[in-house]
Amino acid sequence: MAVTAEKSTSGIILKCLGGLYTVESPDGIFQCKARGIFRSRGISPSVGDRVTVTGGVISGIEERRNFLIRPPLANLDQIIFIVSTVSPPPNYLILDKFIAIAEFKGIRPVMIITKTDLGSSSEIKEIYGKIGIEVMEVSYSDKSTVEAVRELLKGKISAFTGNSGAGKSTLLNAVDSQLNIPTAEISRKLGRGRHTTRHAELYKLEDGGYIADTPGFSTFETNRYDIIRKEELADCFREFRGLTGNCRFRDCGHICEKGCAVVAAVEQGLIPKQRHESYCAMYEEAKRLKEWELK
User: pTM for this one?
Assistant: First the structure.
């Protein structure tokens, strides 16, 4: 049962709901409100923030290492992308958009493939393993694969995300049964899972570390997480790094220009074609952004 902190202490925000903040500290778990001064400064305490609590009120927020806009999450070490082979099949464009956001924020992306008994994972592993993203498979008939996920999460603040119905909550419950996160059956009509996660919340793991179960990213606009300008986009594709400086033209967009080192690498099979197609689609979207959207 959460109690009110009477003395000054520091901790981490586990949940924000209805203007109340649940903070875990060495002194226990406290429910707090935030000082009004944060609102006047345009700052809002968020899940994952390291804060100081004085007299039952959040009085200070430590500088963030990173921050996602929606759902509001701070100080993430890694984002775990849950991708199912089927029901639903992977949406590579949406997946690449969110990997780009992780790269943009300096958050490590990791991919976990589910439902490998129902479909092939070879294409997913080929694309993302090739560019240096850690790719894992989970089979609930093989306990060692679940144990590998536990090791991945130890001592870190991680966010789970992925298409609704890909099995995020099921995997979290397998990692730590005490979490008891609600799951929903696949909606055959929609071809995706019903939305079961209502808000961002950190769950503490028995083996150490915290995880945030977030709404499926198929329900979100990517620019609600953050906006990447077209000039910044190439740096969010790790396989482009080291190549962009070799293009013939300094202002190369890496789409189809002559003398583009990225396009040449795609043609030579060094960069997955699907990844470049995602980049091109995202570049065109970034070009259409209005100036007010970038502020």
Answer: 0.86
d(C-alpha 207, C-alpha 215), whole Å: 24
What is the tens place of the pLDDT at every residue in 29-65? 989 999 877 877 778 899 999 999 998 899 999 999 9
Architecture of domain 73-222: 3-Layer(aba) Sandwich (3.40)
| Nearest CA-CA partner of 14 in 40, 43, 42, 50 | 50
- pLDDT, one tens digit per residue, over 172-193 is 889 988 877 666 543 333 334 4
| Domain locations along the chain | 9-63, 73-222, 229-294
CA distance 163 to 130: 22
For the domain made up of 229-294, the CATH class stated in words is mainly alpha
Q: What architecture (CATH level 2) is domain 9-63?
A: Beta Barrel (2.40)
